[in-house]
Design brief:
By secondary structure, the chain is α+β, with helices and mostly antiparallel strands. It has a domain of 111 residues. It is 18% helix and 21% strand. It has eight helices and 17 strands. The strands form six sheets. Strands 1-2-3 form a three-stranded mixed sheet, with no helix packed on it. It has a three-stranded antiparallel sheet with strand order 6-7-8, with helices on both faces. It has a three-stranded antiparallel sheet with strand order 9-10-11, covered by helices on one side.
């Protein structure tokens, strides 16, 4: 469904979602005139394979997978092999009865494939990162800014990564930072699936699609051309249409995150800006057209006159983080945004130190320790006693475009 969702304007997205629900009910009189899985329930019924899915009681203690038969009809139950237990790299059966558990692979140290065991594979960067964290934890050497990588079952980076005691943020499978951030105290509310959906959508050169929430999740409320829908991404279902005049009474409307007119603050600012000029290159009152994120709120970096500055999702400046216009393409305001989310979530006592332009200062301190950080504020290398900080500074590889000063007393 996500492939279909990136095919065009949002009104077409709504149409595709509704149409997919309609055709899924046409299970009688099916004639196979296509090799496409365009009516899966009917195809499964015609092949005499049950289509029932997502029933947690079917497999009991086993793991439920999509059936490897035609069009993934129904389900297949497989046993899960724990880490360190024996497994087989080949099978005389068409489909195995059990497989290695999440993030585990059947690996053998012998070329013959014998004596294989279900193991974590350090060839995956995310898995290697997580294994190193576990090793450091066991040895009592985990640093104050070190985090455990969150990995998908296939060993790639999961959409949500969390830095200790601060914020969680969205990444793609290669750990490239995406839109979406929230205080780490709300990590269980984040899935970052909308952030990754947009990453895929823009890779295809498309510019329209579903709306996100500030934390990178899908917004459950969709309104187009006077009609609104409730979209449940987890279940792949959509309810509606409802006339937009009923907006405040729709089940998925949430007054804590939605506006009564549906349009979010930055998108409204763009509408107001466009009403004054059709030329986006013209400066109006020394302010450029607002830059919005995929939730319709303000992007972290905004431009006024000869300066770029950091803002929160509602367009308010964060402290006094500012940079010359010529450096606007090089700044992310990641550090400034983290300070904002921590302040508003009661975590302000351990806010990170930032450069004047809103980027992370090359090294951070916490308690009696100091350590280098990357552009996301995560620890790089070992932490050292704060009394030995001068020896640490030359080892910090990440050097943001801060002021060229040897005296770092200007750190915020």
């Amino acid at each position: 469904m996500m492939t279909q969702l990136a095919m065009g304007p949002i009104k077409n997205i709504i149409f595709l979602l509704i149409w997919s629900t309609v055709i899924s009910t046409s299970s009688s009189g099916y004639v196979a005139d296509s090799i496409l899985c365009d009516d899966i329930p009917a195809i499964c019924s015609n092949a005499d394979i049950p289509y029932e899915r997502d029933n947690d009681t079917i497999c009991g203690t086993q793991v439920q997978y999509l059936n490897p038969a035609v069009c993934n009809c129904g389900h297949k139950c497989m046993g899960s092999i724990d880490e360190g237990e024996g497994c087989s790299t080949s099978s005389v059966m068409m489909f195995p009865e059990e497989v290695c558990g999440n993030q585990l692979e059947c690996i053998s140290s012998e070329t013959s494939g014998k004596n294989a065991k279900c193991s974590l594979n350090p060839e995956h960067e995310c898995i290697a990162f997580a294994m190193q964290y576990d090793k450091d934890m066991a040895e009592g050497t985990v640093g104050p800014g070190q985090y455990r990588a969150n990995c998908n079952d296939d060993g790639s980076y999961a959409g949500r990564q969390c830095s200790p005691g601060s914020t969680c943020y969205c990444v793609d499978k290669n750990n490239i930072r995406l839109f979406g951030e929230e205080a780490s105290t709300k990590f269980d509310e984040m899935d970052c699936e909308c952030a990754n959906y947009w990453s895929d959508t823009q890779t295809k050169g498309l510019t329209e699609g579903l709306r996100c929430l500030i934390n990178g999740n899908f917004d459950p409320l969709l309104c187009v051309d006077g009609y609104c829908y409730c979209y449940n991404h987890a279940k792949g279902t959509i309810d509606g249409p409802y006339d937009q005049s009923m907006l405040l009474n729709i089940n998925c409307y949430d007054s804590s995150i939605h506006n009564p007119n549906y349009i979010n603050i930055c998108h409204q600012a763009q509408i107001d800006w466009d009403s004054r000029s059709d030329n986006e290159t013209i400066l109006i009152d020394h302010q450029r057209r607002p830059a919005c994120d995929h939730s319709g709120h303000y992007a972290p970096v905004q431009i006024t006159g000869p300066y770029a500055y950091c803002v929160n999702p509602y367009g308010d400046r964060i402290e006094n983080f500012t940079a010359p216009l010529y450096s606007a393409d090089d700044i992310t305001c990641n550090c400034a945004r983290r300070r904002y989310f921590m302040d508003t979530s009661g975590l302000g006592a351990s806010k990170p130190k930032c450069c004047p332009n809103g980027e992370y200062f090359p090294y951070q301190t916490r308690g009696l320790l100091a350590y280098c950080v990357d552009r996301n504020g995560n620890q790089q290398g070992e932490a050292k006693p704060i009394t030995d900080i001068e020896s640490l500074i030359p080892t910090c590889n990440y050097v943001p475009p801060c002021q060229d000063e040897e005296d770092f007393s200007y750190i915020i």
